[in-house]
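A reminder before we start the practical. When you read a complex entry, don't treat the lines as separate problems. The point of joint prediction is that each chain is placed relative to the others, so the output describes one connected object in space. Small molecules and nucleic acid strands, if listed, are placed in the same frame. In the example below there are two entries. Take a minute to note the order of the lines before looking further.
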Amino acid sequence: MEITPEKLRWIYTTMYRIRRFEEVLLEQTVLGKSMGVAHTSDGEEAGPTGICAHLTDADWIGSTHRGHGHCIAKGVDTAGMMAEIFGKYTGLCKGKGGSMHIADFAKGMLGANGIVGAGIPLAVGAALSAKLKGNGTVGVSFFGDGATGEGTIHESMNLASVWKLPVIFVCENNHYAESTPVEYAVSVPDIADRAAGYSMPGVVVDGMDVFAVYDAAGEAIARARAGEGPTFLELKTYRYHGHYHADDPHTYRLPEEEELWKARDPLPNFERRVIEQDLMDEVELERIRNEIDQEIQDAVAFAEESPLPPIDELYTDVYTNYSNSVRGLR
Amino acid sequence: MTEITFRQALQRGLREALDADPNVFLMGEDIGKYDGAYAVTQGLLEKYGPDRVRDTPISEAAFVGAGVGAAVAGLRPVVELMSMSFSLVASDQIVNMAAKIRYMSGGQLKVPMVLRAPTGGGVQLAATHSQSFENWYASVPGLKVVTPSTPYDALGLLRSSIEDDNPVIFAENALLYATRGDVPDAEYFVPIGVADVKRTGTDITLVGWAHGIVTLMAAAEKLAETGVSAEVVDLRSLRPLDMETVIESVEKTGRALVLDENWRTAGFGAEIAAEIGYRSSDYLDGPVARVSGTDTPSPYSRPLEQLGIPQVAWVIDEIEKTYGI
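Here is the predicted structure of the whole assembly.
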């Protein structure tokens, strides 16, 4: 599939932005600067980037507890994300959602989601809305291999197939559901095989290769926009760090396995390829990296300097029009 | 004014909402071709077509969640569950998604969705089909819970629920579908969160909602025969909860009875009773009287099932026991 020079730059910028955001967030979390837990997605950058390269702000995505990459690829502001994870009032959700629940209405980001599998029906609903409005937009649902054991994915795939909804099911198979290996918990070698049971195409994609993801996603999204119904993509990928910042992955996987995956790292692979094919040069790549390094550093500074939410924020946003939600306790 | 059934009132409310706003659509199990398990959506598929009156597979988690997603993306879904008991299958979507999305997004997203469901027992469907989880949902911040008792309230509250920008659990007690009452011929709305004094009186306040109001109105009739003047307060919604109307009545009558047709332990009636006791103890002639369903699963056999559902006599007895009137 043809990629414009602008799109290529966007892809590299986005993948590197995700990488840098996750690395810096992990440092900050270990230092105790952010609040709560951080589920990082470095290693998996090619997936959200290759998919969201085909989307606009009018398309909706649903995400997971490991959602920073999806947010960034959908265009969500990194400073607002960092501030949210730091629990600050300037965060995208005023500090009420945190890492696992970052949402951005203007960007079509339905929200990261702290309940495994729960975001899938939401993306299907967004796709239903697109179909009923006839506006040509799509819904994309990101979920992990672990979520494929939940009922919601099976119900949602059936519903989307029966109603021929413009939705793309994107399974990011990073091979571990927290600590449980996919070989133990999933009954098929390729999760994409399950798509056949719901009469939709199921495609296994190298989730470390952004070009492969871009091509597969382009086809699936074009199908959806043309009214031809849902597609299931299984991206074989790997998270470089533990389930969350304090998880030691070596209690359940070997360093040798990690090295094998890191040899397929999406960023150097992209760099080699664009330089070989004379599409971008090292000077440009480095300039992008420097810009992003600065952006993420600024995001941390912004998050650190931002105020905490005022006390009244405890009570707001429960309803649109009913403020008396905490009866008698105020 | 025209006299219609509770079921007809709901159907008229759905028709009016579908006519008023192209973003309103219905979905649920067997609501289209089959007209709905309780015939509330009878004839709507024919008039509004399969896009707006949408039959779903039996997948409560998926279609309730799809309702949430469609609502966030700009539509106004009215989702029908065949029974409130089945809402448990979708409870994660209700409690963790619909109720929380607005708060967790810092007010960016809204979920204008109505979840309608028949609720309650009394029709020999046994324990798993006779429950009223609207009482549970009433404790969840982010949800509204609407519990009409008359055709007038059902129609007016349904219209308000569909126009509301928040997720609304709309509980339809199945014993009420065939009950009759007058409704205005012109369109009207009943605001959510305003209790209604269904009968005025001076000696005791009887508080309830939904089908409980039928029992309380009959009890008030009975009490009148012995010279006791009972005021009946219909909460109409459990969340928002209009305690002010309840308190005003209790402070006038000096006596209160709360009827909760469901389980007593940690039931919604306990919340009302506690709140009355806390706020109005200086005005009360005795403790707040309570009548509730038995703390048992609902049995199948009719005589046995009836033993667990509050009757008029229970109300009369409880008042006599508590207040000696």
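Discuss with your neighbour: The CA atoms of residues 50 and 211 of chain A lie 7 Å apart. What might explain this?
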